[in-house]
C-alpha cells in the first residue's frame, strides 16, 4: 500500500508540473486531473485476496491520509497561499438579485474582474454606467470592476468561476437551456438554498442531471443577509465541494476582511442545512406573528435543530455540518433576522394573508421545500413533528393556533 501511495503522489506531482500554459490545452489537462482524482478518492478492495484485504484494512488510516492529501492538491495557482485571492481573475455571477450583487461585491473587493449576467438591459445599463443595481440594494454603490451583461455567452468567456445566484426551482431548466455555452471545466458555485421540487432532489443532483455531463460544483451556504455583506459587516459562511480544491478556490476568490469562508467536502450536509432551514424559518415567523415570546422561539429553534440534525444524518450528511454555519447558523439568522423572506412569510400567514398573495410578490423557498422535507422524512422513517406541522400550516391544513396545540400536546418524552 505504501508503494501505491508513493506512486499516487508521484503521478499527482507530475500532473501539476505538466499544467499547460496554452488555454486550448487546459480541457484535456483538467480531464486527466479529474480522472486521477476519481481513482485516488475511490477505494475498493474488490478482487483482492484475503491477505490483501487484511493489508488494506490495516492501512485504512494511511489511505485516508493520502485521500485527504490529494483532495488538498490542485492547480498551482490554488496552492500558493492566501495572497492567491488577489491574483486577478474573471468571476461571472449569474443573477442580478440581492445575493448575486453581494457575491459580485465580495469578488470585486479582492480585485477580480466581475461580470454579472442579468436579463434586464436597463438593469445592466445602470450597473455599467452608474455603478448602481437599479433593482436590488439600490442604496449601495458598486465597485468599478463590476460590470453587467445580458449576453450569457459573452459573459461566460474566460471565466475562472461561475457564481450561481438564481432561484432554486428555476435552476435545472435554466442550466439545461444554456449548458452548451457553459464551459464544462469551470466550477459552478451555487448559492441557491432549496430542494428541487419537481424531482425531489438535492439541487446539486438536479443540476448535474440538467447539464447531462460531469461538472465541478460547489455550494455556498451560511448566515448571510446580502445587505449586511454589502455594508461590510463581518460574515462567515461555508462552501462545500466533493473535491476540496474547488471549495478552496471559491474560498480564496471571495474571502476578504469582512467575509470569512470555511471549506468542507460535506455537500449533502451543506445543501440540506441551507434548504431545510427555510420551512423552519416560516414557522419562526408564525411564532413572531402570534406575538409569542423568547421562551417559545428558543424552544422552537432548539427542537428544530434536533430535527434538522436527524434528517441530515439520515440523508448521508455530517452532524458536524448541521451544528455549524450552514445548519444552526443559518437557522438562527432566519429565525431571528427581520430580513428573512421565509420568516416574513410566516408572519404574513398568521396575519391572515393568503399564500398566493405572498408568493405573488416574492420568492419564498421554504414553501416548496416544506413538502420535499416531509417526503424525505417519510422515506427515512422519521417523525419530525415541527417539519410536518409547518408543512400543514403552509398548505392550509392547520391554523397557527391549531399547530401550537398539536405540538404542545404531543406525548411527553426524553430529549
TrEMBL record:
| GO cellular component term of the entry, any | cytosol
List UniProt keywords, sorted A-Z.
Answer: NAD, Oxidoreductase
Q: Show where the Glycerol-3-phosphate dehydrogenase NAD-dependent C-terminal domain sits.
A: 266-403
- Gene Ontology biological-process entries: carbohydrate metabolic process; glycerol-3-phosphate catabolic process
Which superkingdom? Eukaryota
Q: Which SUPFAM superfamilies match?
A: 6-phosphogluconate dehydrogenase C-terminal domain-like, NAD(P)-binding Rossmann-fold domains
Which EC numbers does the record give? 1.1.1.8
GO terms (molecular function) for this protein are: glycerol-3-phosphate dehydrogenase (NAD+) activity; NAD binding
Q: Give all residue intervals belonging to the Glycerol-3-phosphate dehydrogenase NAD-dependent N-terminal domain.
A: 90-243
InterPro entries of this UniProt entry? 6-PGluconate_DH-like_C_sf, 6PGD_dom2, G3P_DH_NAD-dep, G3P_DH_NAD-dep_C, G3P_DH_NAD-dep_N, NAD(P)-bd_dom_sf
Q: Keyword Signal, does the record have it?
A: no
Region forming the signal peptide: none
Q: Where is this region: Disordered?
A: 1-22
Q: Which reaction does it catalyse?
A: sn-glycerol 3-phosphate + NAD(+) = dihydroxyacetone phosphate + NADH + H(+)
Q: Which family does it belong to?
A: Belongs to the NAD-dependent glycerol-3-phosphate dehydrogenase family.
Protein known as: Glycerol-3-phosphate dehydrogenase [NAD(+)]
Which species does the entry assign this protein to? Triparma strigata
Amino acid at each position: 500500500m505504501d508503494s501505491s501511495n508513493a506512486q499516487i503522489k508521484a503521478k499527482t506531482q507530475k500532473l501539476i508540473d505538466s499544467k499547460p500554459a496554452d488555454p486550448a490545452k487546459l480541457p484535456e489537462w483538467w480531464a486527466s486531473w479529474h480522472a486521477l482524482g476519481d481513482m485516488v478518492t475511490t477505494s475498493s478492495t474488490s478482487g483482492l485476496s484475503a491477505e490483501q484485504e487484511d493489508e488494506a484494512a490495516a492501512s485504512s488510516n494511511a489511505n485516508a491520509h493520502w485521500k485527504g492529501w490529494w483532495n488538498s492538491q490542485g492547480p498551482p495557482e490554488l496552492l500558493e497561499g492566501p495572497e492567491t485571492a488577489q491574483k486577478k481573475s474573471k468571476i461571472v455571477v449569474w443573477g442580478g438579485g440581492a445575493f448575486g450583487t453581494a457575491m459580485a461585491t465580495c469578488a470585486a473587493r479582492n480585485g477580480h474582474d466581475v461580470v454579472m449576467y442579468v436579463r434586464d438591459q436597463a438593469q445592466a445599463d445602470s450597473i455599467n454606467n452608474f455603478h448602481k443595481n437599479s433593482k436590488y440594494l439600490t442604496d449601495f454603490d458598486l465597485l468599478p470592476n463590476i460590470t453587467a451583461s445580458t449576453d450569457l455567452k459573452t459573459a461566460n468567456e474566460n471565466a475562472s468561476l461561475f457564481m450561481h445566484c438564481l432561484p432554486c426551482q428555476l435552476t435545472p431548466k435554466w442550466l439545461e437551456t444554456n449548458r452548451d455555452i457553459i464551459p464544462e471545466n469551470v466550477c459552478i458555485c451555487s448559492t441557491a438554498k432549496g430542494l428541487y421540487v419537481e424531482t425531489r432532489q438535492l439541487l446539486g443532483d438536479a443540476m448535474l442531471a440538467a447539464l447531462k455531463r460531469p461538472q465541478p460544483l460547489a455550494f455556498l451556504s451560511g448566515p448571510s443577509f446580502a445587505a449586511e455583506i454589502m455594508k461590510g459587516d463581518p460574515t462567515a459562511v461555508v462552501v462545500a465541494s466533493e473535491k476540496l480544491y474547488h471549495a478552496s478556490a471559491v474560498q480564496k476568490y471571495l474571502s476578504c476582511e469582512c467575509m470569512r469562508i470555511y471549506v468542507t467536502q460535506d455537500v449533502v450536509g451543506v445543501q440540506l442545512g441551507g434548504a431545510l432551514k427555510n420551512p423552519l424559518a416560516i414557522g419562526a415567523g408564525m411564532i413572531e406573528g402570534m406575538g409569542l415570546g423568547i421562551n417559545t422561539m428558543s424552544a422552537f429553534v432548539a427542537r428544530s435543530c434536533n430535527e434538522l440534525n436527524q434528517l441530515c444524518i439520515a440523508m448521508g450528511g455530517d452532524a458536524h455540518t448541521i451544528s455549524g454555519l450552514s445548519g444552526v447558523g443559518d437557522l438562527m439568522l432566519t429565525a431571528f433576522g427581520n430580513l428573512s423572506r421565509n420568516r416574513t412569510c410566516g408572519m404574513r400567514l398568521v396575519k391572515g394573508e393568503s399564500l398566493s398573495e405572498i408568493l405573488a410578490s416574492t420568492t419564498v423557498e421554504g414553501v416548496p421545500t416544506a413538502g420535499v422535507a416531509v417526503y424525505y422524512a417519510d422515506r427515512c422513517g422519521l417523525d419530525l413533528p415541527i417539519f410536518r406541522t409547518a408543512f400543514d400550516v403552509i398548505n392550509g391544513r392547520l391554523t397557527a393556533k391549531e399547530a401550537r396545540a398539536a405540538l404542545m400536546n404531543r406525548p411527553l418524552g426524553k430529549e
